[in-house]
Amino acid sequence: MGSDKKVYVSSDGMFGTSYFMAVVGVAIYYIQQAQGFWDGVLGIIKALVWPATVMYKVAQLIQL
């Protein structure tokens, strides 16, 4: 009989991998700079939102 399996194919490509590696690298940097536990937690949060900050600064720079 026929197979009813659905296959999901992601087309993120290299961008997804590059983004993940950048977030991990930034998180490691912030955690190394942390003076205490909560500074490390804040570093992880900063690592997750830094792309938005960068895009905001770029938009300001080119005056969008």
What do these coordinates show?
This protein has two helices and no strands. The protein has 64 residues and is an all-alpha fold. The protein has one domain (13-61). The longest helix has 25 residues, at 37-61. The model has no long low-confidence stretch (mean pLDDT 84).
Question: Could you give a short account of the major beta sheet?
Answer: none
Q: If you average the pLDDT, what whole number results?
A: 84
Number of separate strands: 0
Instruction: Domain count, please report it.
Output: 1
Number of helices: 2
Radius of gyration: 18 Å
Helix content: over 70%
Shape: flat
Regions with pLDDT < 50 over 5+ consecutive residues? none
**Cα-to-Cα separation, first versus last residue:** 57 Å
Strand content: under 5%
How does the helix and strand content classify structurally?
Answer: mainly alpha
Order of helices and strands: HH
Descriptive key words:
mainly alpha, 2 helices, 64 residues, flat
Walk me through the topology.
Layout: H1 13-33, H2 37-61
Helix pairs in contact: 1-2
Write a concise synopsis of the structure shown.
By secondary structure, the chain is mostly helical. The protein has two helices and no strands. 0% of the residues are buried.
